[in-house]
Amino acid sequence: MESCKSIVAALMSVALALLVCITANAQPASARTKPNVLFIAVDDLRPELGCYGTDEIVTPNIDKLAADAVTFTRAYCQQAVCNPSRVSLMTGLRPDSVRVWDLVTDFRDTVPDVVTLPQQFMKHGYYALSFGKIYHNPLPDNPSWSEPHAWPKDASLWSPQARQRLNDYRAKMRADGKSEAAVRRMRAAAVEIVDVPDSKHIDGAIADQALAAMRRLAKKEQPFFLAAGFIRPHLPFVVPRKYWELYDREEIKLADNASLPINAPAMAMNTMYELRDYMDYADTPGPRTGPLTDAQQRELKHGYYASVSFIDAQVGRLLSELDALGLADNTIVVLWGDHGWKLGEHRSWCKQTNYEVDVRAPLIIRSPGVKASGEKSDALVEFVDVYPTLCELAALPLPDHLEGKSLAPLLDDPDRAVKDTAFSQFPRRHQGREYMGYTMRTDRYRYVEWKDRRTGAVFATELYDHLDDPGENQNVAALPENRELVPKLSAKMWSLLPAPP
């Protein structure tokens, strides 16, 4: 009898010890079951990747990610330039709501108390780190992160020879009487092959920072939100030689629709000032003046392609490390480009328009346990949808201010829809007046209204029928057969968007 009592006592002691252990570790175990987030931003990245059906650009690592993710083929930014696009995605607010339409406005001056995407994760137990370009370069928004943002210290971009040529070029500009503002704005070559290892390049060094952080975060019991923002393929196209050698420049095709859209208003097209900021393209004509030479176009496309492949390699390093650390099965991976970029389409380069080629960008989401991994979704989606999507996937509550919708249902059923419109906008100064172009993408149409920002009057409209004109080469808003369609589209737009501020 005594021996039975001893056995029972021993068993109870073991059970009690197990209960104490389980109780003591309950919170950390719960934290470990929360999914991590690897958040990858790529500047100026067009949806021209293997996973988007393009075989001209070498992107094996992004394609591998897409093979186990949902690829959104019709994802649209809210404004096709860096600061507004990124702020919109990171706050979940449209540009008019956050009041950021340019490259210099800090959203903390317009909506100081807004809870950003990483802040929402931090509020619910996550450790958030950022490396590279997530917000616009000069405005990293340290309140969004658990540690202050820091750029790589031992990395470069142009070669010493290119920097010396820039010094000589600036000296000549001063000798020619150019303003000091113009001199300071001028940069070195838009295109250069450099002979440096990846890690000595600024984007390779950003990958190194993110890799070191990932290894550190893997040791924590706290879930993480790790953001890595790559700057290429933004100008300048300066990347290591091996990525240039992936392509034969003479075989690179020029844009099919290398002419201005017919009947488009003058303010619809960008000026390409961005390209003229580089000394080797300082004399670039505007889109309405004339095209670049074929040789220049091939050089720029070659540089863009090489830059995309370079970034693809850095993405591959992050994904490989995620696997090596055993984190892949419990990590949501998001890859997005902040907007598109013209490569000669509409006789133009760079971004900064409301056209499809500028506002459409890649969005790829891989999440543990979803049903549609490896599939594509043709649903219309917007970058303001990313914030609520990640919150839902991580089982976090949604802040009240969000203006997007969660795309989580599309990760199980990519054939469904969460909305039937996507909106973008772009401001333009034309003939001394300020305009805002608002655009609505439906399944078939792109509709644009250019409003006078002072009076609110509609100055011009654009309509592109993607059934017949996917390149948006002819504005058909004024055609008689569209006389009833245009006001219907306008009414639909303003039934869904708030009135302009």
Query: What are the segments in which pLDDT stays under 50 over at least 5 consecutive residues?
Result: 1-30
Beta-strand percent range: 15-25%
CATH class: Alpha Beta
Major beta-sheet overview: 7 strands, mixed
In round numbers, the mean pLDDT is 94
Portion of residues within helices: 25-40%
Tell me the overall shape: globular
> Could you say what the CATH architecture is?
3-Layer(aba) Sandwich
Could you state the CATH homologous superfamily?
Alkaline Phosphatase, subunit A
Head-to-tail CA distance between termini: 85 Å
Radius of gyration: 25 Å
With strands numbered from the N-terminus, the spatial order across the biggest sheet is 3-5-1-7-10-2-11
CATH topology: Alkaline Phosphatase, subunit A
Q: Please give the count of helices.
A: 17
Structural class: alpha/beta
Q: Please give the domain count.
A: 1
**Total strand count, please?**
15
Topology:
Elements: H1 2-24, H2 26-33, E1 36-42, H3 60-66, E2 70-76, H4 82-91, H5 95-98, H6 107-110, H7 117-123, E3 127-132, H8 160-175, H9 180-185, E4 191-194, H10 202-218, E5 224-230, E6 237-240, H11 241-244, H12 273-276, H13 294-324, E7 331-337, E8 342-343, E9 349-350, H14 356-359, E10 363-366, E11 376-382, H15 386-393, H16 408-412, E12 422-430, E13 433-441, E14 445-452, E15 458-465, H17 485-496
Parallel strand pairs: 1-5, 1-7, 2-11, 3-5, 4-6
Antiparallel strand pairs: 2-10, 7-10, 8-9, 12-13, 13-14, 14-15
Keywords:
501 residues, alpha/beta, Alkaline Phosphatase, subunit A, seven-stranded mixed sheet, four-stranded antiparallel sheet, 34% helix, 18% strand
